[in-house]
Specification:
The complex is a heterodimer of chains A (about 150) and B (about 750).
Chain A lengths: L1 E5 L2 E5 L7 H8 L18 E4 L2 E4 L12 E3 L1 H4 L7 H8 L9 H14 L5 H8 L9 H14 L4
Parallel strand pairs in A: 1-5
Antiparallel strand pairs in A: 1-2, 3-4, 3-5
Helix pairs in contact in A: 3-6
Chain B lengths: L27 E4 L8 H5 L4 H6 L1 E5 L5 E5 L8 H13 L6 E5 L21 H5 L2 H21 L7 E3 L2 E4 L2 E4 L4 H5 L27 H5 L15 E7 L6 E6 L1 H4 L4 E7 L2 E6 L2 H8 L3 E5 L8 H14 L3 E6 L2 H7 L2 E9 L11 E7 L2 E6 L4 H12 L6 E5 L13 H13 L3 E4 L2 H6 L7 E9 L5 E10 L2 H17 L2 H10 L1 H5 L5 H4 L10 E8 L14 H18 L4 H6 L6 H14 L8 E10 L2 E12 L2 E12 L6 H20 L5 E2 L2 E2 L17 E6 L17 H13 L13 E2 L1
Parallel strand pairs in B: 3-4, 8-18, 16-17, 20-21, 24-27, 24-28
Antiparallel strand pairs in B: 1-2, 2-3, 5-6, 6-7, 8-11, 9-12, 10-11, 13-21, 14-19, 15-16, 15-18, 19-20, 22-23, 23-24, 25-26
Helix pairs in contact in B: 3-5, 12-13, 12-15, 15-16, 19-23
Classes of the chains: A alpha+beta (about 150), B alpha+beta (about 750).
Chain lengths: ~150, ~750
């Protein structure tokens, strides 16, 4: 039995310990916001926070998060109570197909937690692991910058 | 366009997908006439539950909910917002008040002017621009008339504003009059608003799907879930088209969580409790394959065969004007160049997937599809049921780019559900998504042009060698969609002919479009020779334009330099017939500071018409220690009337980034029929640190709207190649460019 905190609630599971966290969250706990993109840690669609760090969960065995805090896009914010980045994403009309945006937001939120006022190089560095096939990079950059400028990223 | 009003029925046996979301609300429902031969009475009958619930475009309920059944599929291009804006404009409501639902499959949701319900060709807005406004205007007027009767006032004294009927300082919601309005015939052909009265068309507004997409509420195909759903993973022949010869399945069958191992038409599937278990167990299958013909083909030999065809075959004539041979003889100077573009995968962020349930003689399919009636036909075929017993439930798509016009993954999911006897969700791995795609076709093109003494192009010839996409698409889809658009006997015959019916029968315009037409050249000869190893190909964002624009616009640049003319001036001197193209070229040059780049910066320009839209782009880059660095892409677009300017800008940005990715990195190769690339480490995508600044200028226009989703892509590759020529003096004629130049 593996136990961890998922969006603030303690959960446990008896799946085999090498099962990637992404599939445990999606198939066992039925939170579908984190997406499968590559299965190899190359695209960032599956990004969650593990103890505050942005982590690619399609290659992270669930046993690795035993006793740790896992946050998914469902725990980041909601329409009623959004994270400032979610609001900025809407204001800048970031999403097109929208599929990668959970992972983009989780990477961006971890960045602002760690560097509240990142410069463009720091943004690019933190976000280069997240692929967007629709080409929303420029808008993501602006949304992060505007959130950082307002100083309400965390 | 005709419409009818209906009382929404309360028939409890309605089993169509719409019942649960809206139509139970009753009220006013607007449909469109099914076809010329459909009887009006069948539509009007309040008991005709099936037809009614399935073909509603717009509904206003007595409790004032406004439901719009989105007839085109949303894959990022913006129809969820754009088409809803058309409804909102004539209905006189804020777009945010309208509840938007993905439509099911029905004739009423076919693209206007088409016999198929598909989303593609950058046509959603242009095809619906009048139709949806007309539906909304008719509904609005029916509400006005019903209100006039109930309030006992003249209809002309009523104002309709933001979902409210206004009279002498009082207001009533539309829904108040929906039941009354539903009792009468829907007015037809109500006059549409003139453009200068538009309130929401032409305005920047946040996308209606944005909040759901940033708060994980948008449902994509692989988010579908319900109790009793199993998960499948499928092993196919490494070379597409092979079949199972023999297999050892014991290890997979006894792996943790595995329910069943089943064989289907193209491989062996493992069905398990969750996705990861299915995926792991599938790796334990030991399969021997009957290899397809494709397994004898590798990329180097294919290239040689294409070069042989280029040298030896005249090809079929696709387009000609004047006498190109004679004009080349007379030319002051003749230039010739051969260009190459490889196969490309779509690599949508959401890998192909489909959820299928066959139960009680009925098949339900949940899928993000650009051609849901194709998906429905495919599901009927593989479930053994009739089309009437299949429902397709649409979802958002995590990218389409043409890939989801095909229904191969629907066929697999339904076949697995049928063979296993349980509902299954099939999710492809990224490797499968890249290795079993319907690729952009490989292309070899030889261009030849003559310049006269004044440096004008007198002759232009092009010969393209490569596979034809339409033939593959027909092979893939004809038996599932043909009964809907061909007489029975003919469709049956055509299905059996498959590829070869099309091969020499017609030249697919998509193979050669973009190779000619943008410039005034008196003598032209455009030819095509098919060479096809049968690697499946399909429609890839902007189709033939995606490579032909690179060939033609790079070669135009070569001609300009040969004629010792500025590439912008050279283009303007040759497209005087095309006012829109002249304008976008002038605007992009002005915005980009064409010819005024600072020292160390180099510019390239290209322009192209695709999907009725004119786009011109300037790429600016620098060269540092032999490494190219992209700085900025400036883009001017004329796409006629703009419904949402920010979506147009976003689509241009998207076309530019996808175009850059393809130009720099995109290449699929095969080794004995097996695709070599498998994930984002060897099929690379542009990432944020490489993304240049992009500035988009939209040319104001009151013409009819034209394409937006695809036209932003084609000019990028040639503008980039032309900028690299300016920087290095080296003309790059083969994609991808990163094979020849280093990028940072």
């Amino acid at each position: 039995m593996i136990s961890f905190s998922l969006n603030g609630r303690v959960v446990d599971t008896d799946v085999s310990p090498e099962t990637p966290l992404l599939w445990v969250v999606r198939d066992v706990f039925k939170l579908k916001g984190s997406k499968f993109g590559c299965g190899a840690g190359l695209c960032g669609a599956c990004t969650m926070h593990v103890d505050g760090d942005a982590v690619r969960t399609c290659i992270l065995p669930v046993s690795d998060v035993a006793g740790q805090d896992v946050k998914t896009i469902e725990g980041l914010g909601s329409r009623e109570n959004p994270h400032p980045l979610q609001r900025a994403w809407v204001e800048h009309n970031v999403p097109q197909c929208g599929y990668c945006q959970s992972g983009q937001l989780m990477s961006a939120a971890a960045l602002l937690d760690q560097i509240p006022k990142p410069d463009v190089t720091e943004i690019n560095e933190a976000m280069r692991g997240n692929i967007c096939r629709c080409g929303t990079y420029g808008r993501i950059r602006k949304a992060i910058q505007s959130t950082a400028l307002k100083g309400d990223g965390a | 366009m005709t419409g009818r009003l209906h009382e929404a029925p309360s028939d409890p046996f309605r089993r169509q997908v719409l019942k649960s979301i809206a139509l139970a609300g009753g009220g006013l429902v607007a449909t469109i006439q099914l076809s010329a031969c459909a009887s009006a009475s069948a539509l009007a009958s309040p008991n005709d539950a099936g037809g009614l619930t399935n073909n509603a475009l717009l509904q206003i309920t007595p409790n004032n909910e406004i439901h719009f059944y989105l007839p085109r599929a949303e894959m990022g291009q913006g129809v969820f917002m754009g088409l809803t804006t058309l409804i909102a404009e004539e209905l006189e409501v804020d777009p945010g008040l309208i509840k938007v639902h993905h439509a099911s499959v029905h004739e009423a949701f076919r693209k206007p002017g088409s016999r198929i319900q598909y989303t593609g060709g950058s046509t959603s807005l242009s095809a619906h621009f009048v139709q949806l406004r007309q539906v909304a205007a008719n509904v609005r007027e029916s509400i006005r008339r019903a209100a006039a009767e109930i309030l006992n006032v003249s209809a002309s004294n009523l104002a309709l504003q933001n979902g409210q009927v206004l009279f002498q300082g009082k207001s009533w919601p539309y829904g108040r009059f929906a039941t009354e309005a539903a009792k009468r015939r829907l007015p037809k052909d109500v006059a549409l608003k003139p453009a200068n009265d538009f309130r929401v068309i032409g305005q920047d507004r946040p996308r209606l799907d944005a909040w759901d997409k940033v708060t994980s509420q948008a449902q994509f195909g692989l988010d579908v879930d319900f109790p009793g759903l199993f998960h499948a993973a499928l092993r196919r022949c490494p070379a597409t088209g092979g079949t199972v010869k023999s297999a050892i399945m014991d290890k997979a069958a006894t792996a943790p969580g595995v329910l069943k191992v089943v064989q289907i038409f193209n491989g062996i599937a493992v069905v398990a409790d969750n996705h990861w278990q299915a995926r792991q167990a599938a790796e334990l299958l030991e399969i021997e394959w009957n290899q397809p013909e494709l397994a004898t083909v590798s990329s180097p030999e294919l290239r040689l065969e294409m070069e042989r065809a280029m040298a030896e075959e005249d090809g079929q004539k696709a387009h000609s004007e004047g006498d190109a041979d004679e004009a080349l003889e007379q030319a002051d100077r003749v230039l010739e160049a051969t260009y190459w573009a490889p196969y490309l995968a779509h690599a949508t962020m959401e890998p192909m997937n489909c959820t299928a349930r066959i139960q009680d003689g009925h098949c339900d399919v949940w899928v993000g599809s650009q051609m849901p009636d194709g998906a429905l036909g495919m599901a009927a075929h593989h479930s053994g049921l009739s089309r009437d017993d299949v429902n397709v439930h649409a979802t958002f798509m995590g990218g389409g780019f043409g890939r989801r016009l095909s229904s191969d993954f629907v066929a697999e999911a339904v076949a697995i559900a049928r063979a296993s006897g349980v509902p299954v969700q099939l999710i492809w791995s990224r490797e499968e998504d890249i290795q079993y795609d319907r690729y952009r076709p490989v292309s070899l093109v030889r261009l030849r042009a003559g310049l006269d003494r004044e440096g004008r192009i007198s002759a232009w010839t092009a010969k393209r060698v490569g596979p034809d996409v339409a033939a593959h698409f027909a092979d893939d889809n004809l038996e599932t969609i043909a009964p809907e658009f061909l007489p029975w006997g003919l469709s049956d015959w055509a299905c059996k002919q498959g590829y070869w019916l099309f091969e020499d029968f017609i030249i697919n315009p998509a193979s050669v479009h973009g190779l000619f037409g943008d410039y005034d050249i008196p003598h032209q000869d455009i030819r095509h020779a098919s060479v096809d190893p049968k690697l499946p190909i399909g429609y890839w964002r902007s189709v033939g334009h995606s490579f032909n624009a690179f060939f033609a616009e790079s070669f135009i640049d070569e001609l300009a330099h040969s004629a010792n003319q500025d590439p912008l001036a050279f283009r303007l001197a040759h497209n005087g017939h095309d006012r829109r193209m002249q304008q976008v070229l002038r605007i992009v040059a002005d915005k980009a500071g064409w010819g005024k780049a600072e020292t160390g910066r180099f510019q390239g320009i290209a322009a192209h018409n695709a999907f009725e839209t004119a786009v011109a782009q300037v790429v600016e880059l620098s060269l540092e220690d032999g490494t190219i660095r992209l700085h900025k892409v400036t883009c001017a677009v004329d796409c006629g009337t703009v419904v949402n300017p920010d979506i147009v800008r976003a689509q241009m940005e998207s076309g530019i980034i996808v175009g850059l990715t393809a130009a720099l990195y995109g290449e699929i190769t095969i080794d004995n029929g097996t695709v070599v690339q498998g994930n984002f480490h060897d099929y690379e995508m542009l990432r944020m640190d490489q993304a240049p600044d992009i500035e988009v200028v939209i040319v104001p226009s009151d013409s009819a709207p034209t394409g937006v989703g695809e036209p932003g892509l084609p000019p990028l590759a040639p503008a980039l190649g032309n900028a690299m020529f300016a920087a290095t003096g080296k003309r790059l004629r083969e994609l991808p460019l990163s094979r020849h130049v280093k990028f940072s």
